[in-house]
Amino acid sequence: MAMYGVPPGITNPPSPLPAGADGEHPKTTGTLVLVFVFLAAFATYYFVNWKLLSLVWRIG
Amino acid sequence: MSTAFRTCPVTRLKVHSQADALIKANAVAATIFLIVGGIAAFLVLLTRWQVVHLLDAAWFYRMLTIHGMSMLIFFILFFEMAVLYFAGPVVLSSRVPAPRIGWLSFVVMAIGALTVEWAMWTGRADVMFSSYVPLKAHWSYYLGVILFAVGALTVVGLFFASLVVAKRERTYEGSIPLVTFGALTAAIIAVVTLGHGAAIYIPTFLWSIGVMHVDPAVYRLVFWGLGHSAQQINLGAMVALWYMLGALTVGAVVLNEKISRSAFVLYILFINMAAAHHLLVDPVAGPAWKVWNTSYAMYLAVLASMVHGFTIPAGIEVGQRLRGVTQGMFGWLRKAPWGDPGFSSLIFSIVIFGFVGGITGVTFGTEQINLIAHNTLRIPGHFHATVVGGTALAFMGATYYLIPLIFRKQVAFWPLAKIQPYVFAFGMLVFTMAMTFAGTFGVPRRHWDITFSNTSFDLQYSPAVDLVIGIMAVGGLIAALGGAMYVLVTVWSVFFGRRFDLETVKTGGQI
């Protein structure tokens, strides 16, 4: 039941978990992909900063 | 004083009338300071946009001070007080112990905040957020901060007391819920933070009236135990709200309680040490101290954020898949309720906090890299992503649930409310990324005139800087529009909104 001005989480809350949901969880492949995208972004930004530092302060 | 309970027909929680009232009062106060800080932000932005350059130097620094204090301290902490009353007495279906003290604390906090605002608006405290000694403000500024901190600390004490009362009166079974545990983390960090505040603001107050001397180096060291750690209270509260919004909007499951709780404990143990990164280029601190705090301890706190950054989306994915949303790798995300402002706020908050705020923050926390980032616009680019794009957006998402559940009003301008997180998040994303880029070109932070006009030297930036600053300004204006939409929706809902009877909701699911 949708209601104007009320978030759907209140008017139409998530259905209860099916029986047996306490057991083994489904695999979180989507989240894992997002995590690796995050790590790639992290590594790239970190590397770029070291590169920038090396350009500002040259050694030798 | 009323001590009646009502049972929320949606959440089945017993809500103490005093918790109800205190949440409302603190949330309204938070919004008032959000408006004040937002107006100051708008003026600061239009001054930093070099082609507009709106304010003169004195008003620029005044507005920057007002923006920093109103947003980082008053808005955030008033909202966190509301979160503590919600995550304590409401979530545990318990009563507020000593509600009179709660009201007294609120009044003390309000008096403190108004005193600080008065000092700032009247030009008695153009010292910016960090108020580094020997910059001296009027004594009322320091006294106001002390009063505010005492009030906030008292509310934190009440929160601890509410946990004891709930346990004694057996209003819940087993361990406290994860949301309450997150709020407990924020409360413990608040004690450490406000302790630092007392340790440095009381001497500084005495210094301002000529009673004692304050060493600038000691000030910087202790101040950041307050200044940065105050943002870690936000962090604890924000992550607690992430878990809450995940459960409310899509029925996210908690993958592993122990791991999530351990991550919160890592915050308590290590995150205050991360404040040391403010002093990475400070000559008074030794390298061993800097490296231990920022290259070891800080990473353990970062690990905690990465744990939450994984477990919350994974909990959403598992919850969705268990309910039959199993299509493809991202079907769980595609089929999520993107029209629910609580959900969109949650996701945008996680993304901006992690991808922009988190990555930049960890990078700048490295001592060597800090040398090229320190005091540039990259730093506000980082913390606007964490505190505004992360925390404030999560608070906004929570508000859309707070209005019907606590204020018992419909959210006004509902179509506007649904797009508000998109506008705000997009604006903040553009703003923070452009700010970070501008800082990479060496543009300084907290600076009225980056062209250094009327000075004896000529400073040339890359020609790209004008473009990047222009993009930053456009992003900031879009974010300001998103902020104004939030204020319009919340203020209208609370004061003029239609009454909403929770009993009319026939819930077939679970919260």
Number of helices of chain A: 2
The arrangement of helices and strands of chain B along the chain is: EEHHHHHHHHHHHHHHH
How many strands in all of chain B? 2
How much strand content do the residues of chain B show?
Answer: under 5%
The coarse silhouette of chain A is elongated
Helix content of chain A: 40-55%
Oligomer: heterodimer
What is the alpha-carbon Rg of chain B in Å? Answer: 22 Å
Question: Could you list the spans of chain A in which at least 5 consecutive residues all have pLDDT below 50?
Answer: none
Mean pLDDT across the residues of chain A is 88
| Major pleated sheet of chain B | 2 strands, antiparallel
Tell me the helix content of chain B.
over 70%
Unreliable segments of 5+ consecutive residues of chain B = none
Overview of the molecule:
The complex is a heterodimer of chains A (60) and B (511). Chain A has 60 residues and is mostly helical. The N and C termini of chain A lie far apart (71 Å). Chain A is built from 2 helices and no strands. Chain A is elongated. With 511 residues, chain B is an all-alpha fold. Chain B has a two-stranded antiparallel ribbon with strand order 1-2. The longest helix of chain B is centred in the middle third of the chain and has 36 residues, at 287-322. The mean pLDDT of chain B is 93. Classes of the chains: A mainly alpha (60), B mainly alpha (511). Chains A and B meet through α1 and α2 of A and α7, α9, α11, α12 and α13 of B.
